Amino acid sequence: MIQIKTFYFNDLRECTYVLWDETGECVIIDPGCHSDSEKDRLMKFIDNENLKPVKLLNTHGHFDHIMGNAFVSAQWGLKTYIHIEDKPHLERAVKYSEMFGYTVEQPPLDTIDLNEGDLISFGNSHLTVMETPGHTRGGVSFYNDQDKIVITGDALFAGSIGRTDLPGGDYDQLMSSLLEKLVKLGDDYKVYPGHGPMTTIGQELASNPFLRYE
Q: Which domain covers residue 65, as residue numbers?
């Protein structure tokens, strides 16, 4: 069974997730840790739980979700998994972050491409990649059918959806990702978004004003 620890990192309260199973192997998703204290919190949790990080996964490349990529990669010797359409965000990360007043270490660019249907294995578990563009061109979600969980990045939030007014954003594409793919996972899937609290597909279909079938 997959267990999940949520961290809220940096000033934008980005959700970083650590997922692990009974083997102790874990994946780190969207490491947004920026300050030394945030990096220490992540390290201490992994050490205290005797976890072994094996993969670094990015749902997308926006700066608040990749601030800790360089640290996590160096600390545990991990390659970064990201969709090729979002790799340019990594390439521009230092300059783009400076525009928002942040100093960010250059994320590693030796990445592994994520594609629809890829299986990301760790321990006895795996996550399946679902391409969910719209917030960014290369946005992806990670889901597991057995435990009925999905990590959506900035595609879907509790009560809202990701913004589409940034470069590469496309509202119609995002709505297609949500209505034709994500919500069809099933009402009982737990949703772990890129910001804010956990929710479920069923709860969002019942109350999220954006999820309306015409």
A: 3-207
